[in-house]
Design brief:
The chain has about 600 residues and is an alpha/beta fold. It contains 19 helices and 14 strands. The chain has four domains: about 210 residues, Rossmann fold (3-Layer(aba) Sandwich); about 80 residues, no CATH class; about 140 residues; about 130 residues, Periplasmic binding protein-like II (D-Maltodextrin-Binding Protein, domain 2, 3-Layer(aba) Sandwich), CATH 3.40.190.10. The radius of gyration is 41 Å and the shape is elongated.
Length: about 600
């Protein structure tokens, strides 16, 4: 087989927009093939089809004797964008592709030295983000040649590179072709393509012509390729306007008819089949879009990328995975925003603990005592005790309306009303409870009005009030030499039956929520950067499987989560005396699983 890339009758469209129309092209081994054409002509789509990144809708493509995507281990691709990790240094970038391409140390150092000199790279410790646009493109060229592939595809490789260096790169590429390398170059520098072995002129999704550039110049009697391209474009436009079939076939008009205007009429100059002879009796391949001489094929070639699992050594895949994880971490930590994300769970834990870890929380109460003389009402208010970390702080009011107003104004959490004759009624109720009338029961009852909008504190307020009243009633019974009736239930104290604070109950849920939010942010940031980078597409073409990329993000997320969990635990349990009665490793695993769930 003499063709490294063979494309026959390929059609491709995005919806109703046809990109390629019966496209045919042949790239021979050990040659430089330049594909020329305007923006939007289908060049990038064609490259994706060759690399297997898009599925062929109709037609057939063969790349190094295999379907698209299956020979990518022997193909190197330089995208039109830079396609590099900006957080890597020059040396790190080259080592990253060394691992992906499985290059031996000896070959790597030899090629790195040669390519560094060729493209004039600066100090290898400089970050890609610190390089100029032209230097980044030169590094991208070095990356595409570091693995010495059988086929190199370069999309606009010399944009922004000075003429002298561009000439040196072309000499290097010509020399590599002599050694057996095949090169496809997509460029809009038409005159630069004159150095190629073969040129394809692309317009509107099909080739106008394909041949040796010198033969094209001689055949069309033009001084440069730009004039040849314009002549073919004008002829195509004229044929469309006149309604005649366009056959992009050159005619020997200079010898046969003496006509040098370059606008060919197929009626006067009949189309000739591919393989006809030019004036110098050299065979020329000219592509005919309308009549290719072959049958259309409806069968499509799947562009599935072969998984590296099961076909590569586990050691090699491990080091590729390490490189991907290192790349993900480098890209993540390059942004100052990443520090905020790393510290987010620990910061939220700090704020939470500062908010709820006060030694004593004072719950304000508005008290209206109707008793004129000192009695049980005043005694009960004085004996209000602290329960857990909560203590009721009473404020006396002269009227019930004033006490209620304090609650409505949020200056008090609850209003306590001690009725008139409370002491006398309470004594009667203790000494003769069965004969107490309704008025006695009513006057011996303390009324409580709560603001439940602060639900947690209102629960603690009621609990503290009831605990205080229980102790107060025991005191009154003791003064009367009476035994207070208690619930016939005794709570035995164990390690887990301690009087935990309410914040201890809510703390695990809050911390899990902080970890979840932080990891959603991390995953969004890393995956968005992954898709924006040209390095993602470049890595896939180089043979990195989707599975490895996915696993690398899981490992990256785990590493970031471990750092976040350690910082959170140091904050919650090191700086504050929060209890942790369960297994530390169990809660560590729960936090880690929650982080992965967020991803």
């Amino acid at each position: 087989m003499t063709d490294a890339v063979c494309i026959n009758n390929v059609n491709f469209s995005y919806g109703s927009n046809k990109i390629l129309r019966n496209f045919c092209a042949h790239v021979k081994y050990s040659q430089i093939y330049s594909l020329l054409g305007p923006s939007g002509g289908g060049k990038t789509t064609l490259l994706k089809l060759i690399l297997g990144r898009l599925k062929v809708q109709q037609g057939q493509i063969s790349v190094l004797g295999m379907p698209p995507g299956e020979a990518n281990s022997n193909i190197s691709f330089m995208p039109q964008e830079i396609g590099l990790c900006y957080n890597f240094s020059i040396n790190q970038t080259l080592r990253y592709f060394k691992l992906i391409y499985q290059i031996s140390n000896e070959d790597f150092y030899t090629r790195r030295k040669t390519l560094t000199k060729l493209v004039n790279l600066p100090n290898g410790d400089r970050l890609v983000s610190q390089l100029s646009g032209g230097t980044q493109r030169r590094l991208s060229i070095a990356v595409s040649l570091i693995n010495n592939p059988g086929l190199v595809i370069l999309d606009e490789p010399t944009v922004g590179i000075d003429a002298v260096l561009r000439n040196e790169i072309w000499h290097y590429l010509v020399d590599k072709c002599r050694q057996g390398m095949t090169i496809i170059i997509v460029t809009h520098y038409i005159e630069e393509a004159a150095n190629s072995n073969r040129v394809g002129l692309l317009r509107n999704g099909h080739l106008l012509a394909e041949d040796d550039p010198k033969r094209l110049l001689a055949l069309y009697q033009e001084p440069n390729l730009e004039a040849v391209f314009l002549k073919l474009c004008c002829f195509e436009d004229k044929s469309i306007t006149s309604g005649k079939r366009y056959t992009n076939q050159p005619a020997n008009y200079n010898q046969q008819n003496g006509n040098g205007n370059g606008y060919f009429d197929s009626a006067t100059y009949p189309a000739k089949p591919p393989g006809h002879k030019d004036p110098n009796n050299n065979e020329m391949f000219v592509v005919t879009s309308a009549d290719t001489g072959g049958n259309d094929r409806n069968d499509s070639i799947s562009s599935s990328s072969t998984s590296s699992f099961g076909t590569r050594l586990w050691a090699v895949k491990f080091w590729i995975l390490v490189s991907l994880v290192y790349r993900n971490l480098a890209k993540f930590f390059y942004s100052y925003f990443s520090i905020i994300i790393i510290l987010l769970p620990a910061t939220q834990a700090l704020i939470y603990c500062l908010a709820v870890s006060k030694d004593t929380v004072h719950l304000k109460a508005a008290v209206f005592n109707q008793e004129l003389e000192p009695g049980y009402g005043n005694e009960f208010i004085r004996q209000l005790k602290q329960v857990r970390d909560y203590a009721i702080q009473p404020t006396m009011h002269s009227s019930w309306e004033s006490a209620l107003k304090a609650v409505h104004n949020r200056s008090a959490l609850g209003a306590i009303w001690i009725p008139n004759n409370y002491t006398e009624s309470f004594d009667i109720r203790i000494e003769d409870a069965f004969n107490a009338d309704n008025a006695t029961v009513d006057n011996s009852t303390i009324r409580l009005y709560m603001d439940n909008s602060m639900y947690v504190q209102s629960l603690e307020f009621v609990h503290t009030l009831l605990e205080s009243f229980t102790d107060f009633s025991k005191t009154v019974f003791k003064e009367k030499d009476m035994q207070a009736i208690e619930f016939p239930v005794e709570l035995e104290m164990t390690e887990l039956s301690k009087d935990f604070r309410f914040r201890d109950y809510y703390m695990p849920g809050y911390f899990l929520l902080f970890m979840y939010i932080a990891q959603i942010t991390v995953a969004s940031l890393t995956l968005t950067q992954e898709r924006k980078d040209g390095l993602f597409e470049r890595s896939l073409v180089a043979g990195v499987s989707h599975e490895l990329i996915f696993i690398s993000h899981i490992v990256t997320s785990c590493i970031i989560s471990i750092v976040q969990i350690v910082l959170l635990d140091l904050t919650a349990f090191g700086m504050f005396t929060n209890p942790n009665n369960g297994s530390y490793w169990l809660h560590f695993v729960f936090f880690l699983l929650q982080s992965l769930n967020a991803m």
